[in-house]
Amino acid sequence: MKLHSERIMARNWFLFLFFLSFCVNISAQEKTLLKILNRELKKEVKHQLKSPNFNGDTITIVEPFTISNEKILSFKITKTSPYFTGVQVIKQEVPLSAIKNIGKDINIIFETPRDSVTVTTTTIIEGETKEETIKYYLFFPYLSNEKNNENLGIEIQNAFKKAGFIVTKEYWYD
After folding, report:
1. Of 57, 58, 92, whose CA–CA distance to 76 is shortest?
2. Is residue 128 assigned to a domain?
3. pLDDT of 28-78, one tens digit each?
4. Is residue 7 situated within a structural domain?
5. Number of domains making up the chain
6. Which domain does 94 fall in, by range?
7. Does the predicted model carry a pTM greater than 0.90?
8. In whole angstroms, how far apart are CA 126 and each of 34, 44, 85, 86, 150?
9. Is 87 among the domain residues?
10. Has residue 17 been placed in a domain?
11. CB 142 within 8 Å of CB 107
12. What order do you get walking across the sheet with 72-80 strand by strand?
Protein backbone atom coordinates (compact mmCIF):
# COMPACT_ATOMS: atom_id res chain seq x y z
CA MET A 1 0.00 0.00 0.00
CA LYS A 2 2.81 2.37 0.90
CA LEU A 3 4.58 1.68 -2.43
CA HIS A 4 1.36 2.42 -4.34
CA SER A 5 0.94 5.78 -2.52
CA GLU A 6 4.54 6.70 -3.24
CA ARG A 7 4.06 5.96 -6.95
CA ILE A 8 0.94 8.09 -7.10
CA MET A 9 2.70 10.91 -5.28
CA ALA A 10 5.74 10.66 -7.58
CA ARG A 11 3.49 10.66 -10.65
CA ASN A 12 1.57 13.70 -9.40
CA TRP A 13 4.83 15.50 -8.63
CA PHE A 14 6.16 14.69 -12.10
CA LEU A 15 2.95 15.97 -13.75
CA PHE A 16 3.08 19.16 -11.69
CA LEU A 17 6.69 19.82 -12.73
CA PHE A 18 5.90 18.99 -16.36
CA PHE A 19 3.01 21.45 -16.54
CA LEU A 20 4.95 24.09 -14.63
CA SER A 21 7.86 23.86 -17.08
CA PHE A 22 5.41 24.02 -20.00
CA CYS A 23 3.86 27.23 -18.64
CA VAL A 24 7.26 28.81 -17.96
CA ASN A 25 8.43 27.88 -21.46
CA ILE A 26 5.41 29.48 -23.13
CA SER A 27 5.87 32.59 -21.03
CA ALA A 28 9.55 32.71 -22.04
CA GLN A 29 8.59 32.40 -25.71
CA GLU A 30 6.06 35.21 -25.38
CA LYS A 31 8.81 37.32 -23.82
CA THR A 32 10.96 36.59 -26.88
CA LEU A 33 8.18 37.89 -29.14
CA LEU A 34 7.85 41.03 -26.99
CA LYS A 35 11.61 41.54 -27.03
CA ILE A 36 11.64 41.48 -30.85
CA LEU A 37 8.65 43.81 -31.24
CA ASN A 38 9.87 46.31 -28.64
CA ARG A 39 13.41 46.27 -30.06
CA GLU A 40 12.06 47.08 -33.52
CA LEU A 41 9.63 49.74 -32.27
CA LYS A 42 12.47 51.50 -30.43
CA LYS A 43 14.58 51.42 -33.62
CA GLU A 44 11.63 52.81 -35.56
CA VAL A 45 11.26 55.75 -33.18
CA LYS A 46 15.00 56.40 -33.11
CA HIS A 47 15.41 56.42 -36.90
CA GLN A 48 12.07 57.88 -38.03
CA LEU A 49 13.42 61.38 -38.73
CA LYS A 50 16.45 59.98 -40.60
CA SER A 51 14.41 57.79 -42.93
CA PRO A 52 14.52 58.73 -46.62
CA ASN A 53 10.78 57.92 -46.61
CA PHE A 54 10.01 60.33 -43.75
CA ASN A 55 6.61 61.89 -44.45
CA GLY A 56 6.29 64.09 -41.37
CA ASP A 57 4.50 61.56 -39.15
CA THR A 58 6.28 61.01 -35.85
CA ILE A 59 5.54 58.52 -33.11
CA THR A 60 6.59 58.13 -29.50
CA ILE A 61 6.09 55.09 -27.30
CA VAL A 62 3.58 55.52 -24.47
CA GLU A 63 3.31 51.82 -23.55
CA PRO A 64 5.61 49.24 -25.15
CA PHE A 65 4.25 45.97 -26.48
CA THR A 66 2.84 43.79 -23.70
CA ILE A 67 0.96 40.50 -23.52
CA SER A 68 -1.75 40.25 -20.87
CA ASN A 69 -2.66 37.13 -18.89
CA GLU A 70 -5.53 36.74 -21.38
CA LYS A 71 -2.93 36.59 -24.22
CA ILE A 72 -3.83 40.01 -25.62
CA LEU A 73 -0.99 41.77 -27.45
CA SER A 74 -1.17 45.55 -27.06
CA PHE A 75 0.84 48.74 -27.24
CA LYS A 76 0.20 52.49 -27.18
CA ILE A 77 1.89 55.33 -29.05
CA THR A 78 1.40 59.02 -29.66
CA LYS A 79 1.40 60.24 -33.24
CA THR A 80 1.77 63.70 -34.73
CA SER A 81 1.49 64.53 -38.40
CA PRO A 82 1.37 67.49 -40.73
CA TYR A 83 -1.79 65.86 -42.13
CA PHE A 84 -3.91 66.37 -39.01
CA THR A 85 -4.18 68.84 -36.13
CA GLY A 86 -3.25 67.92 -32.58
CA VAL A 87 -1.90 64.67 -31.21
CA GLN A 88 -3.30 61.19 -31.50
CA VAL A 89 -2.84 58.61 -28.76
CA ILE A 90 -3.33 55.23 -30.41
CA LYS A 91 -3.75 51.95 -28.55
CA GLN A 92 -4.04 48.67 -30.44
CA GLU A 93 -5.06 45.34 -28.93
CA VAL A 94 -5.36 41.89 -30.49
CA PRO A 95 -5.62 38.35 -29.12
CA LEU A 96 -2.46 36.46 -30.06
CA SER A 97 -4.61 33.56 -31.23
CA ALA A 98 -6.34 35.84 -33.77
CA ILE A 99 -3.14 36.71 -35.65
CA LYS A 100 -3.09 34.47 -38.73
CA ASN A 101 -0.66 36.17 -41.11
CA ILE A 102 2.25 38.56 -41.02
CA GLY A 103 3.16 40.58 -44.08
CA LYS A 104 4.73 43.80 -45.19
CA ASP A 105 3.43 46.30 -47.70
CA ILE A 106 5.57 49.28 -46.71
CA ASN A 107 4.35 48.70 -43.10
CA ILE A 108 4.53 45.41 -41.25
CA ILE A 109 0.98 44.13 -40.81
CA PHE A 110 -0.54 41.40 -38.63
CA GLU A 111 -3.70 40.08 -40.30
CA THR A 112 -6.60 38.67 -38.29
CA PRO A 113 -10.21 37.65 -38.86
CA ARG A 114 -12.73 40.48 -39.09
CA ASP A 115 -13.05 42.74 -36.02
CA SER A 116 -10.33 40.99 -33.99
CA VAL A 117 -8.24 44.14 -33.51
CA THR A 118 -9.41 46.93 -31.20
CA VAL A 119 -7.97 50.35 -32.03
CA THR A 120 -8.66 53.18 -29.59
CA THR A 121 -7.64 56.61 -30.83
CA THR A 122 -7.73 59.60 -28.52
CA THR A 123 -7.31 62.88 -30.40
CA ILE A 124 -6.18 65.87 -28.39
CA ILE A 125 -6.58 69.32 -29.99
CA GLU A 126 -5.99 72.43 -27.90
CA GLY A 127 -6.93 70.67 -24.67
CA GLU A 128 -10.08 69.09 -26.11
CA THR A 129 -10.17 65.28 -26.13
CA LYS A 130 -12.13 63.03 -28.44
CA GLU A 131 -11.95 59.22 -28.19
CA GLU A 132 -12.94 56.75 -30.88
CA THR A 133 -12.78 52.94 -30.75
CA ILE A 134 -13.04 50.81 -33.85
CA LYS A 135 -12.77 47.10 -34.61
CA TYR A 136 -10.56 46.11 -37.49
CA TYR A 137 -8.82 43.12 -39.05
CA LEU A 138 -5.32 44.61 -39.39
CA PHE A 139 -2.90 45.24 -36.53
CA PHE A 140 -0.19 47.78 -37.38
CA PRO A 141 2.90 47.57 -35.13
CA TYR A 142 4.19 50.82 -36.74
CA LEU A 143 7.28 49.20 -38.21
CA SER A 144 8.07 50.54 -41.67
CA ASN A 145 11.41 52.37 -41.92
CA GLU A 146 13.76 49.43 -42.19
CA LYS A 147 14.03 48.05 -45.73
CA ASN A 148 15.16 44.65 -47.05
CA ASN A 149 14.27 43.06 -43.73
CA GLU A 150 12.38 39.92 -44.65
CA ASN A 151 14.54 38.15 -42.07
CA LEU A 152 12.62 40.17 -39.44
CA GLY A 153 9.37 38.71 -40.74
CA ILE A 154 10.81 35.22 -40.38
CA GLU A 155 12.09 36.05 -36.88
CA ILE A 156 8.63 37.28 -35.80
CA GLN A 157 6.92 34.29 -37.42
CA ASN A 158 9.25 31.89 -35.58
CA ALA A 159 8.66 33.69 -32.26
CA PHE A 160 4.90 33.25 -32.72
CA LYS A 161 5.42 29.57 -33.53
CA LYS A 162 7.58 28.97 -30.45
CA ALA A 163 4.91 30.70 -28.34
CA GLY A 164 2.35 28.23 -29.70
CA PHE A 165 0.72 30.32 -32.44
CA ILE A 166 0.91 29.37 -36.12
CA VAL A 167 1.29 32.49 -38.27
CA THR A 168 1.99 32.44 -42.00
CA LYS A 169 4.14 34.95 -43.85
CA GLU A 170 2.89 35.35 -47.41
CA TYR A 171 4.25 38.65 -48.77
CA TRP A 172 7.02 41.11 -47.90
CA TYR A 173 7.25 44.31 -49.96
CA ASP A 174 9.21 47.40 -49.05
Report:
1. 92
2. yes
3. 889 999 999 999 999 999 988 887 777 889 999 999 999 999 999 999 999
4. no
5. 1
6. 25-173
7. no
8. 34, 27, 9, 7, 41
9. yes
10. no
11. yes
12. 58-67, 72-80, 87-95, 117-125, 128-136
